[in-house]
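Limitations

Structures in this collection are predictions, not experimental determinations, and the ligand pose is part of the prediction. Treat each record accordingly. The example that follows, with adenosine-5'-diphosphate as the small molecule, is included so readers can see exactly what is and is not provided: the inputs are given verbatim, and the output is the predicted complex.
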Amino acid sequence: MKNKLLEIINLNKVYHTEKNDVLALENISFDVYENEFISIVGPSGCGKSTILSILANLEDKTDGNIIFFKDLSIGYMLQDDCLFFWKSILDNCLVGLEITGKLNNESKNYVLDLLKTYGLYEFKDMYPASLSGGMRQRVALIRTLALKPDILLLDEPMSALDSQSRLAIGEDIYNIIKKEGKTAIMVTHDLSEALSMSDKVIVLSKRPGVVKKVCDIQLDGKSTPIKNRSSKNFSKYYEMIWRDLDVHI
Ligand code: ADP
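Predicted complex:
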């Protein structure tokens, strides 16, 4: 039986600006289960990032409920790696632990182990400028994992990368999240990326974002993201969801 971690019920969000009120989200409902990889897709401006900001408690919801089935910690990884250029890779990875007063020998060793496991240990004393964009995203993920979050929120984590690195880092991020046994909610505008990585894809309409479809992805011979793209029924899901995306060419 799958363990439910979160239930999001009829979430609404209105942004109040000097000029007007912007209804960004309308009656958003979905469940999040342990170890699930969920993607939220939809056209630009439909409220994808707003959902993550509300879950991370960075924005207030206007209406609706979010039920936490246990005490959950949440990690948030943004598009931009947001690494401090004057800090070494190791010190960047320790920033969250430092700020939250959780830096000790044990937590530092955990970070060093993550750096070893994910091929970054030999770069630990270097500075972000000497790493590729993809490596920096891996550092950003390790910095987020350092705090041992139960749920990872990923806001377009590969969008700043070129298409080759994007595939490779998507593969890395997916493998790290699965190996560490995390639950993830990723926002992306790239449907192939969403399908190749996710157990469940949530399709939002254009603003105000409403849930148009929640689709469980059951690819034949499900494997890692790059291999999943050549799964027999990948294109079936692509066509089915593409039709629901309010994208105008
Ligand atoms: P997406 O991530 O799907 O591109 P966002 O969640 O960033 O969409 O934004 C949803 C809508 O809410 C957009 O129309 C955006 O302009 C508006 N919005 C986002 N943040 C604010 C804000 N702080 N104040 C006013 N409007 C906002």
